[in-house]
Design a protein that fits this description.
Order of helices and strands: HHHHEHHEEHEEEEEH
Number of domains: 2
Distance between the termini: 25 Å
Helix content: 25-40%
Number of helices: 8
Shape: elongated
Number of strands: 8
Largest sheet: 4 strands, antiparallel
């Protein structure tokens, strides 16, 4: 356990012993927690991003679903914002941009490009958006929300393809940033506002870990009212850095 976690857990246990904190024992795996379709969708996308696999493992999906539910059920009453803040990946799942050389682009226009037929059938392409074919690229839409990096690896080797890339989401917004550590997954909740599409001016942060099968709030930070970085920020900031590598 890191020094940051040791301090946070000690403070939490003292607080709980003095009955100043809600009791989170059993919060994870509590089947009485009412989950919404939005909760399931969020967990599926987060597990997909964290796993880096074409399809996220069920075990990781279940872990993320339960840990997020535990965080919100334990701390949502004190911090209403974490009930609203939802994870969004940095790219569109099940979506891929393909760029072709000019000869191949014309074959696509003429319906004569068949090198991708097997992959399109295997991974169930539902739409081929050719609106930008004059710029030598198209967008593939898949029936499943696959990890686009893994799709890119499969399509970038096709003849005539210059590159395959993710369809990235632009702008800035509130989000949850998960990260694998040696002991599990940590979650940094960020609420941003004030010109967010260009870059959120104001931000609030909540950093969570899971210890002994229960959620622990390592720290809360309001940079506007307390500019000094908290002791745990260097660790939490790595969650944001990891997010852009998914």
């Amino acid at each position: 356990m890191t020094h940051v976690r040791q301090i946070a857990l000690l403070l939490f246990l003292i607080c709980w012993a003095l009955s100043n904190c809600s009791n989170p024992f059993g919060a994870l795996g509590n089947r009485d927690i009412e989950l919404t379709p939005e909760d399931y969708e969020e967990a599926a996308l987060m597990a997909l991003a964290l796993s880096g696999e074409l399809v996220a493992p069920d075990s990781l999906y279940n872990q993320v679903l339960e840990e997020l539910a535990g965080i919100r059920s334990t701390y949502g009453g004190s911090y209403e914002s974490i009930q609203r803040i939802r994870f969004r990946p940095p790219w569109v799942p099940g979506n891929l941009i393909l760029s072709f050389d000019s000869t191949t682009a014309q074959m696509v226009v003429d319906g004569e490009y068949h090198a991708w037929d097997q992959l399109n059938q295997q991974y169930q392409v539902t739409e081929i958006d050719t609106l930008s074919i004059n710029y030598l690229w198209v967008v593939l839409h898949f029936n499943e929300k696959y990890h686009p990096r893994r799709l890119a690896e499969k399509y970038e080797v096709l003849p005539g393809v210059r590159y395959a890339e993710l369809n990235r989401l632009g702008g800035d917004f509130s989000n949850v940033y998960p990260r694998f550590t040696s002991s599990g997954i940590t979650y940094l909740f960020r609420e941003g506002w004030g010109d967010c599409p260009s870059g959120c001016i104001n931000n609030l942060y909540w950093y969570f870990d899971t210890e002994w099968n229960r959620p622990v709030l390592i720290g809360y930070w309001d940079p506007q009212n307390n500019p000094k970085e908290p002791f745990w920020w260097h660790e939490a900031e790595q969650n944001i850095e990891s997010y852009y590598k998914y």
